[in-house]
995_t:CDS:1
Amino acid sequence: MSVHTVLNAAPVVIGSAIDITSSMSSAASGIEITKQFLGAASAVGEAVKPFLPLISAVTLVISEIVDIYETAQYNKKICNSLMDRVTAAEAAVKTLQRRKSENEKNFRNLEYYKAFVRFVDVMKKIQIFIGNVSQLQGYKKFMHASSVKEKFTSITDEFDTVMSDLHFTMAVANEEQRKLDQESLTSDIAEMTKFLGRIEGGIIDNNNKINIVLQEVLIMKDKVEHMNSAQNDPSIWNMKANEIKPVELTDPLNGRSTDRRGEAPCILKKIYKVQEVACKPINIPETDSPDAKKIQGHLAILGKLRDSPNILRFYGLSYVDNNQVMVLEWAEMGSLKEVYDKYDIAWHAKVLIALDICRGLTFLHSCDILHHDVRCQNIMMTARMEPKISNFNYSRMSHGPTSDMKHITDVVHWMAPEKLQHTREKPVSYNFKCEIFSFGMLLWELAFEKVPYEKWDMIKIKEHVLSGKREKISWGKASPDIQKLQKDYAKIIDDPQIRISLQGIFMALDKLADEHCKVGTTSPSLFPDKKLDLDGTSQEPVPISISDDGGMELPDMDMDFSIDSIPTLLSLEEGIAAHKRKEINVAWECFVAHSDLGNKTAKYWQGYYLWEGYVVEKDRKRASELFKEAADDGIADAQLRYAFSLVNNPSIKFDRQLFLEYLTKAADNNNPTAQFNLGDLYLNGKLKIQVDLEKGKKYLRLAAHNNQPKAKEALEKMGINIYVDTD
């Protein structure tokens, strides 16, 4: 059987995925900037007009880069190095605005125009790169730490070259900047490598790679968020939680009074597949209503979070005494607040609890899910003192998102300063920084085993926090080793950079655990209540305030430029649009022109035309070379095309490992055709690849989530529901 037959033929590549700036022309800011430039153009001459869309584009990209940077969670030093260049680019364009008349000669120069096109391209590359390295989902696209360094070096070299070609001045001398770059790369890559080696918690799979489930959850989450506008995709309406038959839920053999929790309707303890579970009442609206479908979608996502041992496991929906319930993992000790109200928690146990909560939050954030209510009341504890995050948005009892803040008087004790300023007239969105602030307050709550600002009313808390003040850290009497632990713990809470990322908090807690929590220790985790002197009530306290720097302000973007006219070059987006209209001659000229300027997306399209023989004769060897160039730039469709260009190509010797490498890159880059083929390979052991049923099913699920028809068909034949995990 030929390789071609085995792989079910070559895929159809989705070109629209490459259209990076399709919404640019409709952006209000872009239109306004263009109007300003047109007004200024008459002062220099009509020839300025070809530059207007380029300046509008680069201005928009810079503003989007700043937005991405504000939400960066990882590799902040690398992002900072690139932001130095973004700031330099912004300043250079502003200078161009002030000196438009002096630059008229440049505006009439064709080479200067081409350089400006490359300038826009490299700014887009910086935007994509920062977006990738600053998030776990994006970081996994880099196979090795060296790939990050190579990509960074490639982009910065290209940026420095084009800045020179445009006669733009860098704020930092090249040698000094490169030294800072190398320090940032070395530091961030080392920290990221150590972080990924220590995080565990379902984020890293058995192959030491970032878990595919995170990608699956992101796809499902996006579908739920756009459920109302997804009428053309009926499969979305099948997204629902696992259904458990009531007969599968049995009573515990030895019932106890603690098997019922809370007031009616109370939570009941049952046994499901030999596991102790909690049956929590839930009220889902009518089956076919939009609200019910959305809740079902949320619950289906909740079921996917089972890969994290630090998130309370959701098994599915069922009925108990004719009442609908959520079937959840049973937490014997109740909530973390209930534990510290009843006992004193040993310090080494507090560190390990904090570390595991951080793992759970990192898993959620990697799925782009925010908890909205991080406090000890929402952390459930097992009999082995393992924390499980619970009661976040997707597991609430039909009360809607936490952003409604119906229980504002309770939540305010952990609320970030910016959220305290939220009003109906000036709403403030809840984001990762808000969540990290709340986690910092949870660390304080865990340390002192009481609610922050206890017995304070909402107005007093708001005035206190908005004035820059925080809860006090005042330790009680303790042994020297515990005093050392407390001091290090306080540094984590009191760190003004605490809100930068969970990664930093995790690494600090991990170091604390290494130093103070020895494996195999027999020290008790719990003591009788009030045994420990936690807050120093028997001695004069030495207060230390928790600080918070808040966020950075966006720079002013008021721009007014003037430029001159030369023969125009179609934008790459216009070239792709021409291809879609089957104006292949126009498209080909555009792709070649941008490819000559070094644009990797254009190289992909040029390779595609050479492969298919559009406009020019087929040259599949050259096409494969172009696909590889684009593939190494992280373009998913190019990675797929390059992999398949190795198949049955007489001009190239087939390399199985190279084929698998690039097919995997495309699949991990969310290309559904690659996901299907990779899943098929692992399921059936094609191309002499070792069978891996679990990995094969995971890739087929991803492909099915992306509406790949063959993947859906294959899973249906196997009786697998893509939205429900079964044991």
Q: What stands out?
A: Residues 231-329 form a domain with the Phosphorylase Kinase; domain 1 fold (CATH 3.30.200.20). The longest strand covers residues 275-281. Residues 1-44, 395-405, 538-565 have pLDDT under 50 and may be disordered. The chain has four domains: 3-8+567-717, 24-198, 231-329, 335-528.
